[in-house]
């Protein structure tokens, strides 16, 4: 089968021919139709998680995918041949990922039936970002009447977090460049602030001089987090997906600081499916690329979470190391088009 894999940490991801995996007891073989791109995919390739990740090589990249159950191992009862499934399927220990024609998933792992009426490319964009946002918004105890700032709102986790926080009745302030402000409002943001135009705190405090109740942050480093946290009212909550929070420092200021780590599960996916079926959660897809172009898409995401030749992000934000390959996809970018998830068509 064809797959995008790395031969070792730090190697450039490349189109590779690899054997089709065989499902063992409790496993399903998924014929993938689409894979969703997450920043974790290039972080894995770069070896940024090598101390915590047990991986074998060649290592196929990609956690998220959507496809059809093609075969099942002994003892599989929940999912049947031919069912449309989506989920988080990364099997690093066996070198398996979703940028491939086939992968394996444990039936008792984070795999679920696809939302009704959703196409594969949309479903593949949901799992990691959606599960993270759902669990994080709940952990943050976001509630009616609160004011919540979402930093990194236009990304995969952010766009889901905006929608899920807004449906609790909270007032959501979303970071967005000007061309994405309308999209953020349509997803439920009450206000937007443009992180590419000046100081974030000044923009937020201009309309909320008495502070805000919670921050859901998918971008900031430790220094930026400390600065943004100054806007929190006593008792406020700061959730970071980039491990930028110092919980002790937050506690000393009467704040709750959490470095949020998602735990994928079939239950979370089922709940996302229900929200999607009810029309309460949407996914904004920026771009679909064929499997052979996945390495360029990964490089573009690593280069700063954006497709266009925008000005550099403000200092103090975690945007990852410099790109290792040219941003080949830039030439095809739409001026002022929507940003959102990138999906790989397998
Ligand atoms: N801990 C966990 O369990 C967990 C789970 C999922 C993801 N994560 C991590 O969370 C981070 C975000 O993931 P993602 O999937 O949402 O990424 P993504 O889809 O690539 O989106 C990143 C977003 O950040 C925005 N951005 C970049 N710099 C910004 C700034 N200075 N201020 C405000 N927004 C800015 C970008 O918008 P512009 O291009 O317009 O600037 C982009 O929309 C990644 O580091 C990922 O590894 C952690």
Automatic annotation (TrEMBL):
Residues 10-344 form the Enoyl reductase (ER) domain. SUPFAM superfamilies: GroES-like, NAD(P)-binding Rossmann-fold domains. Transmembrane segments: none annotated. The keyword NADP applies. Coiled coil: none annotated. SMART domains: PKS_ER. This is NADP-dependent oxidoreductase. Pfam families: ADH_N, ADH_zinc_N. Residues 302-346 are annotated as: Disordered. One of its GO terms (molecular function) is oxidoreductase activity. Keywords: NADP.
């Amino acid at each position: 089968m064809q797959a995008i894999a790395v031969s070792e940490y730090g190697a450039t991801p490349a189109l590779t021919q690899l054997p089709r995996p065989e499902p063992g007891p409790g496993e399903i073989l998924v014929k993938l139709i689409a894979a969703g791109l997450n920043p974790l995919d290039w972080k894995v390739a770069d070896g940024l998680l090598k101390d915590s990740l047990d991986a074998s090589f060649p290592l196929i990249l990609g956690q998220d995918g959507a496809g059809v159950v093609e075969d099942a191992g002994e003892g599989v009862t929940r999912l049947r041949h031919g069912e449309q499934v989506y989920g988080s399927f990364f099997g690093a220990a066996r070198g398996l990922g979703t940028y491939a024609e086939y992968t394996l998933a444990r039936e008792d792992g984070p795999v679920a039936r696809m939302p009704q009426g959703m196409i594969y490319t949309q479903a593949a964009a949901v799992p990691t970002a959606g599960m993270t946002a759902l669990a994080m918004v709940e952990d943050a105890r976001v509630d009616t009447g609160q004011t919540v700032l979402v930093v990194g709102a236009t990304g995969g986790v952010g766009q889901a977090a905006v929608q899920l926080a807004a449906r609790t009745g909270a007032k959501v302030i979303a970071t967005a460049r000007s061309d994405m402000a309308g999209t953020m409002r349509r997803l439920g943001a009450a206000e937007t602030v443009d992180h590419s135009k000046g100081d974030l705190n000044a923009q937020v405090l201009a309309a909320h001089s008495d502070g805000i109740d919670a921050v859901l942050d998918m971008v900031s480093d430790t220094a930026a987090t400390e600065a943004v946290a100054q806007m929190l009212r006593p008792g406020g909550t700061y959730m970071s997906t980039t491990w930028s929070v110092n919980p002790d420092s937050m506690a000393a200021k009467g704040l709750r600081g959490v470095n949020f780590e998602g735990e994928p599960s079939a239950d979370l996916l089922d709940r996302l499916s229900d929200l999607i079926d009810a029309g309460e959660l949407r996914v904004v897809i920026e771009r679909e690329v064929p499997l052979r172009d996945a390495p360029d898409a990964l490089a573009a995401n690593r280069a700063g979470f954006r497709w266009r030749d925008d000005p550099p992000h403000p200092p103090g934000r975690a945007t990852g190391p410099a790109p290792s390959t040219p941003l080949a996809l830039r030439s095809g970018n739409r001026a002022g088009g929507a940003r959102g998830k990138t999906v790989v068509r397998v």
